[in-house]
Design a protein that fits this description.
8-stranded mixed β-sheet, 8 strands
Length: 175
Amino acid sequence: MPSLTVALAPVPNEAVRQLIAELEEILSAEYPPDQRHGLSLDAIFQPHVRFFVATLDNAPVGCGGVALFDGFAEVKRMYVRPGARGQGVARAILGRLEAETRAATLPVLRLETGDKQTDALRLYRRYGFTDCPPFGEYATLPPDTITASIFLEKPVTHPANPTSHGVADEAVELG
């Protein structure tokens, strides 16, 4: 049975660089620069952002981050390599990002994605995300720079008595 792990990446290691480069290549082929709003590597590794790499049998296959803001968290740079799709990787990453949001006691997890990311949109909607208006910095951008953007959000439930403020690396059994 394949072994899936989602682990915090505290620095931009080679796996992070490769995954982000692949994501950028895909997005740059589909959207002009003014319609792409992804974080740079430097912006990913800031104190308010938690960034994770998913490995399947010890090989890096996906990534995603969560930026923690006042009142909400935002999914950042979510990507799963095509060969690893359909194996629970994206769901495991989203689960980890939601757990981080919950640990930060934030009420909602939001994201911006492109209108051509149909697989991602399908995943997010299955995971409970619904449409929302532009939020945070997106709400201040000129409207013509977000015409390809879809904004989604998901309420995050919190246990009555949380037992920890951090989340350990998570191993997931697939099968």
